[in-house]
Design a protein that fits this description.
This protein is α/β, with parallel strands linked by helices and about 260 residues long. It has four helices and 28 strands.
């Protein structure tokens, strides 16, 4: 049975699972689908198009599946998908998709801290930590296991690789390749994320291969030359292949 405060509003067409807690002053719009065991603390707004999984917690002031802040948006029927076991702290704002992709996606087991903004058509993976007041513009992609510190500003269409650590206050308009620390001003490559990789169980051999891959990648005048050097000199491990494929597919260029 759901626990719905008398001071909350749930649209008759909203689809709710079981054991959800909906606190006072929450607003659940039509065309919303909510799974089981979610907690909506006070003053959470779940807007049109939200698709929410199970075991998520939404703190006060959040706005989920909000109308995109995109002047090209013409009211097309889009959605915002959220997985399971996420924590959305106070005043988190997530926009739904536009005609570009149709969907904003948030995976599972993520922590979005206070005042984070995720714009239209973004795609966030799993096990991601995002610090207070960080902002993602439209169509940003964040791979699994990334850690993004507080007050980070990410330009639209950027991609952030897995297992990265982005230092607080960074701003960037290029892709952040996997396994690295990005920081300083202007934001650039600050080495391999050694502590993070060790915590995630990467072997010393794998970490050495990651370090050697970046040494080669950044030692050449152009990215294409660096990729060629990696392909020639490094073994085709999972980690090396991820770095190479990320660099090859980058449309904005990678941080150096």
């Amino acid at each position: 049975m759901n626990q719905i405060s008398e001071m909350a509003y749930v649209h008759p067409e909203a689809q709710l699972g079981d054991n959800n807690i909906i606190g006072p002053f929450c607003y659940i719009d039509r065309n919303t689908v909510i799974g089981d065991n979610n907690v909506f603390q006070n003053s959470v707004t779940v807007n049109y198009g939200a698709r929410i999984g199970n075991n998520n917690e939404f703190f006060a002031g959040g706005s989920i599946s909000a109308k995109p802040q995109d002047l090209k948006f013409r009211g097309e029927d889009t959605i915002c998908e959220i997985g399971d076991n996420n924590s959305f702290r106070e005043n988190v704002n997530i926009s739904r998709g536009t005609a570009s992709k149709g969907t904003t996606r948030i995976g599972s087991h993520n922590l979005l801290m206070e005042n984070v903004h995720v714009a239209h058509d973004c795609e966030l993976g799993n096990n991601i930590i995002i610090g207070n007041s960080t902002k993602f513009a439209g169509e940003v992609i964040v791979d699994d296991n990334a850690i993004i510190s507080a007050a980070v500003l990410c330009h639209q269409f950027c991609r952030i690789g897995g297992y990265v650590m982005i230092q607080g206050g960074c701003r960037f308009s290029m892709d952040v390749p996997p396994y690295i620390i990005a920081g300083k001003e202007p934001t650039h490559y600050c080495g391999v994320n050694l502590i993070g990789l060790r915590r995630r169980g990467f072997t010393p051999e794998a970490i050495t291969q990651i370090h050697d891959t970046y040494r080669l990648l950044y030692s050449k005048a152009t990215l294409a030359e660096g990729i060629a050097a990696v392909r020639e000199q490094m073994p085709p491990t999972k980690e090396v292949d991820y770095i190479v494929s990320f660099a090859e597919s980058s449309k904005r260029g990678i941080l150096r």
